[in-house]
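Predict the 3D structure for this chain.
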Amino acid sequence: MGLVVQKYGGSSVADAEGIKRVAKRIVEAKKNGNQVVVVVSAMGDTTDELIDLAEQVSPMPAGREFDMLLTAGERISMALLAMEIKNLGHEAQSFTGSQAGVITDSVHNKARIIDVTPGRIRESLDKGNIAIVAGFQGVSQDKKDITTLGRGGSDTPAVALPAALDAAGGGTFTAVAGVFTPEPRVGKNAREDVWTALSDMLA
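Done. Predicted structure below.
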């Protein structure tokens, strides 16, 4: 039995239908005889919406509370994904960054991972569960405060966890047609990068 780590970005879990598609892909990996760990981002534009909300309340929100707010997005995604996996007849358990053992320094809003101690994930996998981990977040080593890893930070745990778990393989799945030169939703002349073209994994 292999252990694989998959990572899904916000566009892949942007709505209920996206979550259902992702859940089917995860279950497929489980049915192939693998233990499966999934790192998931917040749904769609949730993080941007939370940032905007915070700025409406306070022009300079305190770092600790700002992190506490922003990490809510990933918790929503991971819980919904675990629910759908259970609907498909498989056991899943969701973990926040701190529950997953993602230990960081104390720099709020752009913390760095200094260690990963995935004991609870291993225990869950050994019980036959699929483990769903909230990306973008961890817990500070000294104060045990919730921290975030900066924009795009969900990719960092997706790289750190396979090493900590000795995973056999992994992958980042996207809901867009490929890797583009600029952001395709913004750039007028966006084109697929010539050195890599990812198929739409969720079609």
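The beta strands are 3-8, 35-40, 92-95, 102-104, 113-116, 130-134, 137-140, 146-148, 169-173.
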